[in-house]
Amino acid sequence: MNFPSIKITVWDFPLRLFHWLLVLSVAFAIISGELGGNLMDWHERAGLLILGLLAFRLLWGFIGTANARFCSFFPTLNRLRAYLDGEWRGYGHNPLGALSVIALLVILVGVTVTGLFANDDIASHGPLFDLVTKHTSDWMSGWHDRFYTMLLALVILHLLAIAWYAIFKKQNLVLPMLTGKKRVEHDEAATPVMSSAWSVALRFILAGAISVAVVWSVANGGQPFVEQSAPPPAVVTPEW
Amino acid sequence: MKKFALAILCAAISTSAFAGKEEDQQIKVRQSAYTFMAWNVGKIKAQVIDRPEAYDKNQVIAAANAIAAVANSGLSVLFGPGTDQGTGWKKTRLKPEFFKQPDEVRKLATDFNREANELAKVAQGGNVGDIKAQFGKLGEACKACHDKFRVKED
Ligand code: HEM
Question: On chain B, which terminus has fewer CB atoms closer than 10 Å, C or N?
Answer without folding.
Answer: N
